[in-house]
Write a structure and sequence with these properties.
Largest sheet of chain B: none
CATH topology of one domain in chain A: MetI-like fold
Radius of gyration of chain A: 25 Å
Largest interface: A-B, 119 and 113 residues
Strand content of chain B: under 5%
Number of strands of chain A: 2
Largest sheet of chain A: 2 strands, antiparallel
CATH superfamily of chain B: MetI-like
Oligomer: heterodimer
Structural class of chain A: mainly alpha
CATH class of one domain in chain A: Mainly Alpha
Number of strands of chain B: 0
Helix content of chain A: 55-70%
Radius of gyration of chain B: 24 Å
Strand content of chain A: under 5%
């Protein structure tokens, strides 16, 4: 695709073009009407985005310092400082397990699908008969929603009727309750989530590998490097931008994880996640808005570090261009 | 020795064997669901699921279709997805055009805001958003709840707002690769900003727009959380979020669950098979800098 081709000439530089002699000094000098049109074209979408994404995100931060059960207007909001955070960290029994599950989730996604995806991408990054068919099969799970993935994998994980216990031969004698046992259900769900995530990672690495200059590999081969050395010393370092994208995509995916556990058991009994705790405070049994917002802020803080890393990576290139 | 070895490419055969096995394992959950969905309840009740089918039938699909009222939920999804898709592409392309073709002081800030916005976990937004929707009245011809909450319009709006982050990022990268002279030429001919955008730049972005449309269709179709929180009437739920209720409807009949799941997956599968190039292209566009 075009994105993989070399970038066009940078746009911002104001080189003296012939037109600039005729009155217009800068290429961006606009007639008043054009200014208005452009203002609307930029302003309306930005307003929608800001009002529905950033204002609520900041709202979460503000409400996290409050105690409000949602009844009555804003005047009834009581400000409690860091009270919610203190309570969550010290007294809320579901918080630490949820945080731990989120971290396991992150770690698992960062290791298993990433390694598998990279391996498959390297294997498929060559002239190979049926290569397209392999790719399609491996991409396929990516188009399914995580909610649906949860549904489909329940058919695999059922104790007596599921595919897994039958293949393992434990269905009749001693069926494992993959999704019901709180010691293992998180990992069972992670396999399902990783199943869907691997294709995406493979796709990102395949695109990255295609953009690697073959001359680099040839030069390494001429210098007598083995295939391993070439990959780890030459190809992998060149893939650094892709690695950052993979890291960020995976972390965000991990923090957003919600649908799959909600479909399976509403995120209880070993499947608690921060996202579930937040949602429980809106549509669940309790409606503690300040409390739920404080939980959301914990999510925000974790994700912010990665989002900034990503922005830095992407827009530093921009500056350089 | 060496002669014979090169005549049979063992490494290549091993590679193919490995890849075929991996693909089979990857497809296994779907094939298993498909197999279960084609069998009768009596068959699986008697022989279990891990057995050779006595007969295959499409009955489960028609039962799931009517019993779970699937057409209604497909329609709900359609009502939300199509306007959201059109609006998000329109609004995002306008921002991308402005940001990539003109230089302002706040250019980069705006682009960063959109890019970062698309990476926020939804849960960071959802609590205040729910409150905001609860406080926003709508005329009853727009929403029978008379609020933005529990209205399809509200769902469309959040999809547009949230997804525009990704689309602005991708489209602005794409537009930067279009030579600047093209817009300039139109301007010299007297075309205003909007005409340059609509008649010159946008048509050139067709490949990127097609890729994004494919991707965004899948994402909006697959949304679970927004509808779960912002839609309260079961009858208005889009199909992905309505899955929750399907489980209750089908009770313990796994064949029906399998058939229902596959029917829900069908639109995205069709899009994937028909437009795979666009789908893949959209994701690589988003990840690799142009």
């Amino acid at each position: 695709m075009t994105a993989l081709e070399s970038p066009a000439k940078p746009a911002g530089t104001s080189d003296p073009s012939p037109t600039s002699r005729r009155g217009r000094r800068r290429a961006t000098a606009l007639a008043p009407r054009d200014k208005l049109v452009l203002g609307l074209m930029l302003g309306i979408p930005s307003l929608v985005h800001l009002a529905l994404v950033w204002v609520p995100a900041l709202g979460s931060v503000a409400l996290s310092f409050s105690s409000w059960d949602g009844i009555g207007g804003f005047a009834d909001i009581e400000w409690v400082g860091f009270g919610n955070y203190v309570d969550i960290f010290t007294r809320y029994p579901r918080f630490w397990p949820a945080l731990q599950h989120n971290l396991i989730w992150l770690l698992f996604l960062l290791v298993v699908p990433t390694v598998a995806g990279l391996l498959l991408a390297v294997l498929l990054d060559r002239q190979l008969r049926f290569g397209r068919i392999y790719q399609s099969a491996l991409y396929l799970p990516m188009v399914l929603s995580l909610a649906l993935v949860g549904f489909i994998w329940q058919l695999i994980y059922q104790p007596e009727q599921g595919l897994l216990n039958n293949v393992l031969g434990t269905a009749a004698t001693d069926p494992v309750n993959w999704l019901g046992d709180p010691d293992i259900n998180l990992y069972a769900v992670l396999v399902a989530a990783g199943w869907r995530h691997t294709g995406y990672i493979m796709l990102l690495y395949l695109a990255g590998l295609k953009a690697v200059d073959p001359a680099l590999k040839e030069a390494a081969a001429l210098d007598g490097a083995t295939a391993w050395q070439t990959f780890f010393r030459v190809t992998f370092p060149v893939l650094k931008p892709v690695n950052v994208v993979v890291l960020v995509v995976t972390v965000i995916e991990g923090l957003r994880a919600f649908d799959i556990v909600y479909v399976i058991n509403k995120g209880r009994n070993g499947l608690e996640l921060l996202s579930v705790l937040v949602t429980d405070n809106i549509i669940g049994e309790s409606s503690r808005i300040g409390w739920g917002s404080a939980l959301a802020v914990v999510l925000l803080v974790i994700s912010l570090g990665f989002i900034i890393t990503y922005l830095f990576q992407v827009f530093r290139e921009e500056e350089r261009a | 020795m060496t002669f014979r070895r090169s005549s049979i490419p063992w490494p290549r055969i091993a590679l193919h064997v490995f890849l075929v096995l991996t693909c089979l394992v990857t497809l296994a959950p779907l094939l298993w669901a498909l197999y279960a969905s084609l069998r009768t309840y009596d068959d699986t009740a008697r022989n279990g699921y891990f057995s050779v089918a006595e007969s295959l039938t499409f009955d489960n699909f028609s039962t799931a279709w009517t019993q779970a009222d699937l057409p209604r939920y497909y329609l709900n999804t359609l009502i939300v997805t199509v306007p959201a898709l059109v609006l998000v592409l329109l609004l995002s392309s306008m921002v991308a055009y402005g940001v990539s073709r003109y230089s302002f002081r706040f250019n980069l800030v705006l682009l960063m805001l959109f890019t970062a916005g698309n990476l926020l976990p939804q849960q960071v937004i959802v609590t205040p958003l729910y409150r905001l929707y609860l406080l926003t009245p709508l005329p009853s011809w727009l929403s029978d709840s008379e609020l933005l909450l529990d209205s399809q319009l509200g769902l469309v709006l959040i999809h547009v707002a949230f997804q525009s982050g990704f689309c602005v990022f991708v489209l602005s990268n794409y537009m930067k690769t279009i030579p600047r002279e093209l817009g300039e030429a139109a301007r010299v001919d007297g075309a205003g900003v909007f005409r340059q955008y609509w008649q010159v730049i946008l048509p050139l972005c067709r490949p990127a727009l097609a890729a994004l449309a494919t991707l965004e269709f899948t994402w909006i179709y697959n949304d679970f959380l927004w509808a779960l929180v912002l839609i309260q009437t079961g009858d208005k739920m889009p199909i992905t979020s309505a899955l929750q209720n399907l489980k209750g409807t089908f009770f313990v009949d796994n064949n029906l669950v399998a058939a229902g799941s596959l029917l829900v997956a069908l639109p995205t599968l069709v899009v994937f098979f028909a437009l795979q190039r666009q789908f893949i292209g959209g994701l690589t566009l988003g990840s690799t800098k142009g």
